[in-house]
Amino acid sequence: MKDLFGKAILDYQTNNSPEDLVTETSISEADEMPVSYLFRTYNEMPELEQKALQLAKGSVLDVGCGAGSHSLALQNDRNLDVTAIDISENAVKACQLRGIENVKVANILDLDVKNKFDTILLLMNGTGIFGTLNETAKYLQKLKSLLNKGGQILIDSSDLIYMYDQDEDGAYSIPAEGYYGELTFTVQYKGETEDTFPWLYLDYNTLQNAAIANGLKCELLLEGEHFDYLAKLSI
Fold first, then answer.
1. Domains in the chain, please, with CATH?
2. What pTM value is reported for the model?
């Protein structure tokens, strides 16, 4: 991948003429997103993210940390032991420049299970990294293996059913093949286009069923204003 998301983050951090990111999915048109949004403070975060940070405890793993705003809030405001990971080298460079003490380029699936955590955070549609519904079990098993006894996984997502048309009987016109929360995502930045990649939005019931099937308890913590929610998974 060209790491355009990471380039935008690093450009913003280093004042290198950052521009808006343009994102597009298989069910939505192109939409501009200011890179500054990824650098928001705790007070600027949505309630779901604030709730997750309030509940974080002990040693924390921030998966897909991006610009590192969640990690920074936990490290600086709550003095928690935070490990931040992202597959983007540029994003990790930006996190280092922002002062995150323990941040590295890593894929969650490659982490050594000898290192376990009390809290694992997956925020800003944390289920996205699963890619597809079929891959969800693999990720849940990995996350489960990284939890300390009594640990928790705090994860958010959205039910995308609202994106589909309804007929007069109230039934939704969802695709016959696959799961309706499976999207493909494209990112553009400074005239370049990233390779299209899969991105998964899970409705709460589907997440709960997947969690139970993989030996995890699933609890709905908070619902947002627009079909989004925060959930807690535990062993």
1. 4-234 (3.40.50.150)
2. 0.96
Q: What distance in Å separates the CA atoms of residue 23 and residue 29, rounded to the nearest whole number?
A: 8
The sign of the dihedral angle between the CA atoms of 74, 76, 77, 78 is: positive
DSSP single-letter state for residue 127: G
**Ordered per-residue pLDDT tens for the chain, 235 residues:** 899 999 999 999 999 999 999 999 999 999 999 999 999 999 999 999 999 999 999 999 999 999 999 999 999 999 999 999 999 999 999 999 999 999 999 999 999 999 999 999 999 999 999 999 999 999 999 999 999 999 999 999 999 998 887 777 777 778 767 899 999 999 999 999 999 999 999 999 999 999 999 999 999 999 998 899 999 999 9
Q: Measured between alpha carbons, how far is residue 185 from residues 18, 53, 70, 112, 196 in Å?
A: 21, 27, 23, 29, 6
| Token pair of 20 as six digits | 């808006």
Token pair belonging to 74: 């936990």
- Computed over its alpha carbons, how large is the radius of gyration of the chain? 18
Give the integer Cα–Cα distance in Å for 177 and 229: 25
Element (H, E) at 93: helix 89-98
- Residue 75: both structure tokens together: 């490290």
In angstroms, rounded to a whole number, what is the distance separating the alpha carbons of residues 83 and 67?
Answer: 14
